[in-house]
Amino acid sequence: MNAPDAQAIQQAAARLRAGALVAFPTETVYGLGADATNADAVLWIYETKGRPRFNPLIVHVADLAMAETLGTFPPLARQLAENFWPGPLSLVVPLSPGHGLADVATAGLDTVALRVPDHPVALDLLRATARPLAAPSANPSGKLSPTTADQVRRGFDGKVEVLDGGPCTAGVESTILAVDGNRLIQLRAGALPRETIEAFIGLPVEQAAEGAEIAAPGMLLSHYAPNAHMRLETAPNPGEAWLAFGPAQTHDGPTRNLSPSADLHEAARNLFSMLHELDATGAGMIAVSPIPETGLGEAINDRLRRAAAPRIPPPERR
Ligand code: TXA
Ligand code: MG
User: Is ATP-binding found in the keyword set (predicted)?
Assistant: First the structure.
């Protein structure tokens, strides 16, 4: 991979400031970025992804100082930001007065999801643009998230400009936490394990109940879906594709192993790429081995359950 040079970053920043979309790498997945203060640019994200307008976007910033011009950080949120940023943690906090964000970026809510990504290209781009960047995962709504620049290009038929920063190292989206007084509510399991947050902060992290008052509006049941159907916690039948996990497994059909050594970090990093690859074989069904529900397993299983959920309309392939 050729990391984008300073000139490529400056050009991308100029395009973003002029209202264009630019996809860029983060440590979790590639994001489809737009100037979060420009309503037309942000609307273009929804249009390009085919994303429902009620689903607010994560706003990316270069550092906590920039975040504090957009959101009001209660002490717990500040402690988390100081410890885990840059990193795969999105914090949902009340909007600051005079924040300047386009209403469409927050879908009209009075809160905003903020994060500082841990990727040199993303950070250089944020500094060069000097604007907050709204960036959902750079895939058509409902489809698999991209962890390489090629997956972004293919997903949008080459119509989206992409800064190539190589494959993402974490591989699943950020953990989303709402801070409500002294309560921490996990709205989406992600690349920062719940146990890691609890160990640092010394408080339990609650799981948001389905349909709860505080929720991530984008947590639709069917999401992250390949074209193939999926069966979870199982072994493959002849002819099916197999997404395996753990040592010494063979199968007479397209097979990928998330981690032969059963390492959850490796499995998270491989998850979306291997699903993209198995899907590209044209298999009608992908069987997935059981994966432990601890640490990063929570986020991996969340994505797999949504990928396997019934879809409306049905996928293109049977
Ligand atoms: O890792 C990530 O978070 C990636 C990279 C590109 O940073 N971004 C990402 O964005 O996953 P997206 O748009 O695919 O997911 C945003 C999620 C949605 O579930 C949305 O509902 C939730 O964040 N969200 C955004 N603003 C919110 C708010 N104010 N309150 C509750 N949930 C919010
Ligand atoms: Mg997404």
Answer: yes
Residue 35 DSSP SS3: strand
Same domain, 34 and 127: yes
Ligand 2 centroid – CA 198 distance (Å): 25
Question: What integer pLDDT is reported at residue 243 of this predicted model?
Answer: 98
Spatial separation of the C-alpha atoms in residues 131 and 214, rounded to whole Å:
27
Give mean pLDDT, residues 197-217. 81
Structural domain boundaries, residue 274: 229-308
Q: Which residue has the tokens 């924040």?
A: 99
pTM: 0.93
Buried b / exposed e over 280-310, threshold 16 CB at 10 Å, is: eeebebbbbbebeeeebbbbbbbbbebbbee
- Quote ipTM for the complex: 0.98
* pLDDT at residue 258 is higher than 90: yes
Return the structure tokens found at 187: 């709205």
| Residue 316 falls inside a structural domain | no
> Structurally, how many domains does the chain consist of?
2
| Per-residue model confidence as pLDDT tens digits over 121-160 | 999 999 999 999 999 999 999 999 999 999 999 999 999 9
Ligand 1 cavity residues, CB under 6 Å: 26, 28-29, 31, 55-58, 90, 92, 106, 109, 111-113, 117, 135-137, 173-174, 176, 187-188, 216-219
Residue 245 in any domain: the answer is: yes
Ion ligand 2 neighbours, Cβ < 5 Å: 137
